Amino acid sequence: xxxxxxxxxxxxxxxxxxxxxxxxxxxxxxxxxxxxxxxxxxxxxxxxxxxxxxxxxxxxxxxxxxxxxxxxxxxxxxxxxxxxxxxxxxxxxxxxxxxxxxxxxxxxxxxxxxxxxxxxxxxxxxxxxxxxxxxxxxxxxxxxxxxxxxxxxxxxxxxxxxxxxxxxxxxxxxxxxxxxxxxxxxxxxxxxxxxxxxxxxxxxxxxxxxxxxxxxxxxxxxxxxxxxxxxxxxxxxxxxxxxxxxxxxxxxxxxxxxxxxxxxxxxxxxxxxxxxxxxxxxxxxxxxxxxxxxxxxx
Length: 298
What we know:
By secondary structure, the protein is an alpha/beta fold. It has helices at 57-76, 88-92, 96-107, 116-127, 163-170, 175-193, 206-216, 229-241, 244-248, 261-275, 287-296, and strands spanning 10-17, 21-30, 33-43, 50-51, 54-55, 81-86, 110-113, 132-138, 143-149, 152-159, 201-204, 226-228, 279-283. A six-stranded mixed beta sheet has the order 10-9-8-11-13-12, with helices on both faces. Strands 3-2-1-6-7 form a five-stranded mixed beta sheet, sandwiched between helices. Strands 4-5 form a two-stranded antiparallel sheet. α1 packs parallel to α3 and α4 (116-127) packs across α11. Residues 1-6 have low confidence and may be disordered.
């Protein structure tokens, strides 16, 4: 019997130490299922502090402060089991163990750096769609692609490109060159995924949610929102032509994501083109929900 099947409820919190932001989700887990208690979010841009394979001191401090703050929030929600999961920026950083040490000593939380494939599996588990479907989750430093069927991930891969890293690579490029750069990263991984064209596409995570919010003009109604390919292309062109301050003021926009959103959308467009899809369904359930499910099953 797994611990999830035990009769006593557990209060868990997962902290996602991502390349763009650090997020927390707390949940009460029992045999009856999950009750989500609260979320937290801090934009830290660890990816921007990564140079020469090392996180600089400022990035280490930002990461330590954010995890400590979110752990405190999780404990205020009653969480007694807290785990942190490091993704792309920490996979790339040779000194990720230094951040793990600081977090452990500061707030008693263990940070585990997971592989791209594990991150992809968590993105799929967060949604567990019925039928045969594709899930794509563009983060700050990587993009996870998953082929699954009836809640089971069949193949899960990670492309080494995200909204923050693509912005660093293409800053000053024309919109067409940004899209070409995104495709150069996405297509080789798509070909390795071996999925047939025309399957339903579910886009999850912060970039996808922000795209939906801007498309809707509000943060309400993101879950399940469908965005057509032609609409997404028009939104990319509009965002790319817009001055940053004007972009920040758009209804539904997360101001701290305004500079990287065109790059996140370019990655989504590349995936839709590879998948032969005419639309994507947006889910607000990112990696955190998969991390909580993983914790609950242990």
